[in-house]
Amino acid sequence: MNWKWKEDSILNNYNENTPCKDIFKAVCDEIAEYYIPKGWRYAKSRPKLTYNDKSIKIEIAFWSSGSNMPGDYVNLEIIPTIYSLDLKKDLKSKGIDSKGYILGYPGIFFEKLEDIPKGLKRVIDLHGNIHEYEEEYEETSVLRHHNNINVYGINEIDLLKIIDFIDNKIVLWKDLINDYDKLKANITPFLKSDFRKLKEGDFANYIKYKFPDKYYDFEKLEN
After folding, report:
1. Over the stretch 142-193, which tens digit does the pLDDT of each residue have?
2. How would you class 7 by CB atoms within 10 Å of its CB: exposed for 0-12, middle for 13-18, buried for 19 or more?
């Protein structure tokens, strides 16, 4: 797929004096241009994409940073949140107040690793580059899919990498959460702390609601 900036986008022509917030907004607008034809809604004021099929809602918020530096660094952070609207209605009918939140940041961006020593974090950035860090407090060896990128100097190829990241780390859950076996396979690598939160929160209620015959299997799951 090829991509060209919108004709009136500042991404076609900016410099070290261009306000960071303008570059950030322009990048968010370009991402939205890709997803709006696919049924997503876009809020510009606080940039956010929302998918809502009346059963599942996925929100992808775009944040920046107070550490941005004109002419050098403009941060784009990608924050996903996934809700089951069916679960929300079911819980409401039982007198339980819930937004139906089942998955999101940071859990879906972290995985356990077995092939590196405990306490080592391996980070894959949005360019596909791999970095390793020693972090003694980590419960196990960790793979993190980094959800931040410096968008100063971004080109169209970089934008497609961001879209690929969103598609393969966030949007795919839209289908996974409707298939128990696929869902199970994709949550099993979660960090123990994040996996425990799933079993204690509304994700467990979602399994009970959506896959009642699988709930016992889910209760027995360990990672």
Report:
1. 888 899 999 999 999 999 999 999 999 999 999 999 999 999 999 999 988 8
2. exposed
What string of DSSP letters covers 113-149? Answer: -SSS-TTEEEEE-TTS-EEEEE-TT-SS-EEEE--EE
What are the backbone angles phi and psi of residue 89, rounded to the nearest 5°? Answer: -65, -40
Distances in Å between the Cα of 125 and the Cα atoms of 4, 93, 97, 115, 132 are 23, 43, 37, 19, 11
CA distance 72 to 134: 27
pTM for the whole thing? Answer: 0.92
Spatial distance between the Cα atoms of 130 and 122, rounded to a whole number of angstroms: 7
Give bridge partners of residue 41 from the DSSP assignment. 50
C-alpha to C-alpha distance for 22 and 12, rounded to whole angstroms:
12
